[in-house]
Amino acid sequence: MAEFLLRWLVNLSLLFSPFFLVQGWWLCRTIPRLPEADGPVRGRVPGRAPGFHILLIGESTAAGVGAASQKEALAGQLAKASAERAGCEVFWQVLGRNGLTARDACTLVAGSRVFFSPDVVVLVLGVNDVVRMRSASVWRKDLRALISLLRRRWEAVPVVLAGVPPVGLFPALPQPLREILGLRGRMLDAVSRSLAEKSSGVSHAAGPVGVHPEPEFFCSDGFHPSPVGYAIWGRYLAEVLVPEICMDQ
């Protein structure tokens, strides 16, 4: 029922699409375009015992926009939180690109070199699919295709779907565009949650979705997390990721 209501509200919002296009045009001209995080896209967090390997795939948040280095960005923060929670070393690698959609991620994975066999893959996607007005059915289809690709490459690797970021809370977005995109984000996140519930070896990690973040959660553009925000998000993801790995090993 909740997913149906979200879809109905989203469809209703399309009546105001010309106004939203104007707001979107204004937004593209005013939000500063920040670079992706600097530094190596793979690394190791030392620990007391042999550990596991995390592969993070996704959009600008995976690429670390809003942080100076990958260690301060989501990949490094997630690896650190996971190592602390599991009490072992963690190897990590990130495949991230600004503007990436779920469909684009298939191409990125197919053409990228991964330096280990991952024990878990974390997918951080959704904002670009929201902005590009992807429907629920297209989002579900693209996620399934990406998961199938990962399973063909690494057999039964566990997959964690990070919750679609809470677009409706982004300070950079004006109203009513913020509210409408927030509804679309919640709709896609409901699809992710449903897909995880019906798929073996796939989990959904809500993270900060639905939690009103403090101002310091965002970086200067009001759109991407700051290092503080990435640390909070990394801890949320680690709460789901570590038990999944420990049960599988």
Automatic annotation (TrEMBL):
List the signal peptide residues: none
The keyword Hydrolase is assigned to this record: yes
Task: List the PANTHER family hit by this protein, alphabetically.
Answer: THIOESTERASE 1/PROTEASE 1/LYSOPHOSPHOLIPASE L1, THIOESTERASE 1_PROTEASE 1_LYSOPHOSPHOLIPASE L1
Q: Name the Pfam families on file.
A: Lipase_GDSL_2
Q: Which GO terms describe its molecular function?
A: hydrolase activity
Output the InterPro entries linked to this UniProt entry.
Answer: Ester_Hydrolysis_Enzymes, SGNH_hydro, SGNH_hydro_sf
Q: Which SUPFAM superfamilies match?
A: SGNH hydrolase (SSF52266)
The name this protein carries in UniProt is SGNH/GDSL hydrolase family protein
Bilayer-spanning residue ranges: 6-28
Task: Give the UniProt keywords, A-Z.
Answer: Hydrolase, Membrane, Transmembrane, Transmembrane helix
Show where the SGNH hydrolase-type esterase domain sits: 56-232
- CDD domains associated with the record: FeeA_FeeB_like (cd01836)
